[in-house]
Amino acid sequence: MTRLLDADLVGEPGSPAAAVARAPVLVLGVGNVLMGDEGVGVHAIRRLEGEPGPAGVRLLDGGTGGVNLLADFDGVRAIVLIDATRDGRAPGSLTYLRPERVADLPRGLGAHDFGLKDLFAACALLGRLPEIHLFTVSVDRIEPMTTTLSAPVAAALPSLEAAVRQQAETLARRFPVDRA
């Protein structure tokens, strides 16, 4: 998987950002890393960037970006979304969902909740809603001003990373990079 693009200007000639702008698969981790377990999606992205992945897969730390991420969806055919959820299950439980419509997305946790649904709704209105593959990690509490994950959520990261990597590889085979 391509490393995060934080230090690159999109469109800068010869930058890695320009090379992955056409990646058909986006792995998007969301959450607020200053709220403990709520930031598990971003923690997962940071782990995934540690090893190379297949061509055509781009990693993105979406933070709490919400609708500000709309431009990052240009040309994307499938999104693997990683987020925290309070679903009543034991902390660290992993769930995979394949929502077909925006209404099928589960309720999120933090400040990005409303923005994410708006983001996908905007994509649908524009006729550009990609396939959504959602991995959630169950959490039971949010701790403001804490950058570390609880023990059960941290223990789930290796399994989450493996599942997300496998899903991204499968999607990369389905949606090869357009070299045009």
Give me a quick take on this structure.
The chain is α/β, with parallel strands linked by helices and 180 residues long. Helix content is 29%, strand content 18%. It is globular.
Would you give an account of this structure?
The chain has a single domain (16-174), classed as Rossmann fold. It has four helices and five strands. The chain has helices at 16-20, 40-48, 112-125, 151-174; strands at 25-30, 57-63, 78-85, 94-97, 131-138. The protein has a five-stranded mixed β-sheet, covered by helices on one side. α2 (40-48) crosses α4. The protein starts with 15 loop residues before the first helix and ends in a 6-residue tail after the last helix. Residues 7-15 have low confidence and may be disordered.
Features:
alpha/beta; single chain; five-stranded mixed β-sheet; Rossmann fold; 29% helix; 4 helices; 180 residues
Number of helices: 4
Structure class: alpha/beta
The CATH topology label is Rossmann fold
CATH superfamily: HybD-like
Measured as a percent range, the helix fraction is 25-40%
Q: Describe the strand arrangement of the main beta sheet, using strand numbers.
A: 2-1-3-5-4
Q: State Rg.
A: 15 Å
Reading off the top of the CATH hierarchy, the class is best stated as Alpha Beta
N- to C-terminal separation?
Answer: 20 Å
**Count of all domains:** 1
Quick one: biggest sheet?
5 strands, mixed
Tell me the CATH architecture. Answer: 3-Layer(aba) Sandwich
Shape: globular
Number of strands: 5
Helix and strand sequence: HEHEEEHEH
Poorly predicted tracts of residues: 7-15
In what range is the share of β-strand residues?
A: 15-25%
Mean pLDDT: 85
